[in-house]
Amino acid sequence: MTCRLLIFIPLHGMGDWVVCEMTSQARSGDIPITQEDMRRGRLRGNGWARPGRLNTLSDSVFHRTIGAVSTAKLAEVSAAVRSLFQPHHM
Questions:
Q1: Residue 47 CB coordination number (10 Å)
Q2: Do the domain assignments include residue 43?
Q3: pTM for the predicted model, two decimal places
């Protein structure tokens, strides 16, 4: 089974999560995630959150948590995801 690093954004009250893919290869629009952005846990290396690569997952598929990004970084990623649904993107 392949495990991938993801940024989890809760869908309040639904038991599901929006997950934003992380990658080690930066692309346009990606948000850098460094060790300094971690409030808990450690990264193997710097990475990038990809707000344009989203999925929804149920709580039941999570195997483990390796860390947590800072509140500020989660807010930055969440804002980038929300911006995808603003009228100027349609």
A1: 21
A2: yes
A3: 0.81
